[in-house]
Amino acid sequence: MGLGGRLPRSIGQLGVNLKNLLLQENQIFGSIPENFSNLSRLLVLNLTSNLLNGTISPEIRKLSNLQQLFLSHNHFNRTIPPALGEFPHLGLLDLSHNKFSGGIPDSLANLVRINYLFLNNNLLSGTIPSSLGRCTELHKLDFSYNRLTGSIPPELLGMSEIRIFINLSHNQLEGPLPIELSKLENVQEMDLSSNRLTGSIFPQISSCIALRLINFSNNFLQGHIPASLGDMKNLQSLDVSSNQLSGVIPATLNKIDTLKLLNLSFNNLEGVIPSGGIFNLASNLSFLGNPYLCGTVASKSICSQRRQWFQSRMFLIIFIVVTCTSAFLSTIFCVIGYRRIRVTTSSSEETEMIRKTKTPELMHNFPRITYKELSDATTGFDDQKLVGSGSYGRVYKGVLPDGTAIAVKALVLPYMANGSLDSRLYSHSALVSDFGISRLVMSAGGGNAGVIDNMGNSTANLLCGSIGYIAPEYGFGSNTSTKGDVYSFGILVLEMITRKRPTDDMFVGGLSLQIWVKSHYHGRVERVIDPSLGEASRDQSPEVKRMWETAIAELVELGILCTQESPSTRPTMLDAADDLDRLKRYLTGDTTATFASSLGISSSTIGDD
Predict the structure, then answer these.
(1) How far apart are CA 102 and CA 123, in angstroms?
(2) Which residue among 170, 224, 278, 568 is least enclosed by CB atoms within 10 Å?
(3) Which spans in 197-303 are helix H?
(4) Residue 440 has pLDDT above 60, yes or no
(5) How many helices (H) and strands (E) does the chain have?
(6) 517 to each of 121, 507, 597, how far by Cα in Å?
């Protein structure tokens, strides 16, 4: 009719005798006026296909004689008002194709005379009320294309009067396919597609003898297709595609003369496709996505060529050749693999033995000790706990709560009850310390250089109090490394041989001690070595004396080698330990122990004038 605008309030003055108000397919917008309730004898209200988007007044319940209410194809976007369930004579309610949200109100169960209930194509959510089972006179029920969840209530499916169709498709319904569907003996169409239904298609579905259409597609149904479907003489369309059905296709389906559409695609069906009836009319589209099916469809063979190939003599020959070749190659690969594994395992065991013999184990998990714990352990750094002092700090003896004895300086070290290294070299005080500094720092960081960087790019603060033993590269801010420990070890060797401290006034540092040794290295060993160290050899035979001179000269050379200015030219501690081991074997009479110098100094020339 082309009407537009809002419904006027004066519409309620049309008279109490108005029975039909038909305003469908116009441009009417806004709300339904409250004074509609004045039309108390109205039987049919049709506002389909307009632009209504406002509210539905609760006063609409006063239309107590209303039999048909059409509000479909509008823009209503609120919840369905409970007042719509208060029409005692209502036989048709059509709210489809709107944007109604929220749940289905329980009040709709009061529509005991309802024959047609359409709530499809909205935004409804929640579960289907089981109370709708009281609407026993329903012929058509359509809740499709919503967001309904939960299972299908058995009470709803017990209404045997549903004789036209039930459509719950395109929702989010779940749970097993209800066996109560078999009670709908008069229903003609049943569409439960595009949900999340599980379970199997029960054989009792054949009790619905009036069914013309079954659509269970796009669910999670399993099991076999029941052969009892062949008893449904009125079935025209069967769609169970996109499920997880298995087994063979029942040949009984070819007995249904009325069946015109069959879709079994995208399942796990297997076996031979039956012939006759619908199977002579269906195309291959009805069987797609079932990789284990074969047969003739629309005069085209799906698997006959494959079956002929398997049965051919050529296939048998190729199969035997391939099998034998594969077995032969597998045997060869197994033998090669076995031998390689044995070699790898043996090599790994030897490497592990060498590593265990030569590589000293690193210490890990150093404890963190607070300043308060150190203060308590030394009784507040009491002078009675003082075990040594020098120009670079004091050393206190302390005892931790667990009974561990410690020595406390700038570092916390295990307490050595038998005296200090200095007491072994000289006859009085100060502890030669800070060996293994790089290993301590690197072990605490798990070997991660990033941890060292976090402790400071310079070692100046860390190595305070160790002048004379610190490698020269540390003075330029280099990171700690094991090559710095090698340097400190070399200084100790030279200090032990020469009996001269690297911190004496005549030496600026440890490097000066090495330079002094080199400058006096052109004469005999006695000119470099403290005479007291040679006393043991003066009363020995020339051979023994020569042996001791050679050993001491090798120690001098090792000290010089370890105190090279460039870290890259110093040996590793593993190499130094190896040299000491050879020296020990040499002194015990092992004539196979030989020495080689990277400084160009030979043991054979040490004793020459």
Answers:
(1) 7
(2) 568
(3) none
(4) no
(5) 13, 29
(6) 100, 12, 16
Pairing of strands 222-223, 244-247: parallel
Cα–Cα distance measured from residue 127 to residue 152, given in angstroms and rounded to the nearest whole number: 8
Say which CATH topology domain 434-605 has: Transferase(Phosphotransferase); domain 1 (1.10.510)
Question: Is 409 known as a binding-site position?
Answer: yes
Query: 199: closest CA among 186, 213, 180?
Result: 180
Residue-level pLDDT at 522: 43
> For tokens 């058509």, what's the residue?
140
Query: Residue 390 pairs with which residues in a beta bridge?
Result: 393
CA atoms of 100 and 398, how far apart (whole Å): 81
Position 120 scores a pLDDT of 97
Name residues whose C-beta falls within 8 Å of residue 447's C-beta, 6 or more positions apart in sequence: none
Q: Length of the chain, please?
A: 609
Quick one: pLDDT at residue 479? 66
Give me 561's structure tokens: 């080698």
Q: For residues 73 and 46, is the Cβ–Cβ distance under 8 A?
A: no
Domain locations in the chain as residue ranges: 312-358, 371-431, 434-605
pTM: 0.52
Rounded distance, CA 292 to CA 461, Å? 77
Please name the residue that has the structure tokens 């669910």.
219
Domain 371-431 annotated CATH 1.10.10.10: no
Rounded CA-CA distance 190/165 in Å is 6
> What is the enclosing helix (H) or strand (E) of 387?
strand 386-390
Rounded to whole angstroms, the Cα distance separating 232 from 213 reads 11
Of 463, 465, 489, 467, the C-alpha closest to 477 is: 463
Residue 391 phi, psi dihedral angles, 5° rounding: -75, -10
Instruction: Give the residue, 307 or 287, on which the prediction is more confident.
Output: 287
530-574 pLDDT per residue, tens: 444 444 445 567 877 777 778 888 888 888 888 888 888 889 888
